[in-house]
Amino acid sequence: MTVAVTARRDVPQAGRADAPRGGPRRRRRLHVPTYVVLIVLALFAIGPLIAMLFNAFKNNAQIGADPLSPPTSLSLSNFTTAWREGDFATTMRNSVILCLGSALGTCVIAGLAAYSLSHLNVPGGNGVVTYLFLGSAMPVQLFVVPLFSLWTSLHLTDSLFGLIVIYWATDAPFATLLLRSFLMKVPKEFVEAARLDGASDLQIARRVMLPLAWPGFMTVALIVGLWAWNEFFWAITFIHSPGKRPISTSFLAFQDQNSTDWGLTSAAALFMLVPVVLLFLSLQRRFVAGLTSGGLK
């Protein structure tokens, strides 16, 4: 009896001793290729940003000699010159107006359209969805000539409001499809319960759907705002006055027909990048909290 008990006790001990030798080490070896690929992708993504940061403190001669080496001195002359010549105080203000106007208007337009297509029996709803898919796939450059002629007759050229309306039209199809897919996951019992309480469709959209779908609206607002912040084609086409140009056009001040000042361009790129990074970091926690919150809450 004593021998049997001893044997039974020795078996699990041997198993516990052998498990750490092969299992974890083997799993770590299997993860090595994954880590290598992730490190390469991280360097591929972060490398240009590091080079841009280095070049922001160099002049053109130093950049031409070695564009990838760290700067020998931390001079801020490129930043002050780029801020002044690029008129970033004006262009940044205009871009903030464009981002806020585009995000707010697109959320309203796309939110109402998405609610109608997801929770109302709209005649021809499938055709509307197909039309939105086609509208999102078509290149916007096809509409430049007729749109410019129409905007000229309506006196909307060289106007921030006219540019915001263009952003509404170009962003609304994609935003509607995104919000529609998000709203379709909201249980229809919430809508039916609100209708039984006597709420109208507008009240349901504002008091029921909006609190439940605000993570989707935040996603749309972030996407539209970032697109308006970086957009260049429509801005350079419809805005002509220097006092109304957005931040993406400030880079034109650092180049001519024959050369480009890469030091000033790198410093200006940091002016354009830092506000976006700070905005994302400030909204990241709320965005994740909204995604993890339950519908019953």
UniProtKB/TrEMBL annotation:
Membrane-traversing stretches: 35-57, 95-117, 129-148, 160-179, 208-229, 262-283
Localization per Swiss-Prot or TrEMBL: Cell membrane
UniProt GO BP: transmembrane transport
Pfam families membership: BPD_transp_1
PROSITE patterns linked: ABC_TM1
Keyword terms of this UniProt record: Cell membrane, Membrane, Transmembrane, Transmembrane helix, Transport
One GO CC annotation: plasma membrane
SUPFAM superfamilies per the UniProt record, alphabetical: MetI-like
Domain ABC transmembrane type-1: 92-283
UniProt region (Disordered), positions on chain: 1-25
Recorded topology in the membrane: Multi-pass membrane protein
Compositionally biased region (Low complexity): 12-22
Main location per the UniProt record: membrane
Entry-linked PANTHER family: ABC TRANSPORTER PERMEASE PROTEIN MG189-RELATED-RELATED, SN-GLYCEROL-3-PHOSPHATE TRANSPORT SYSTEM PERMEASE PROTEIN UGPE
Family statement: Belongs to the binding-protein-dependent transport system permease family.
Protein name as it appears in the record: Sugar ABC transporter permease
Source organism per UniProt: Rugosimonospora africana
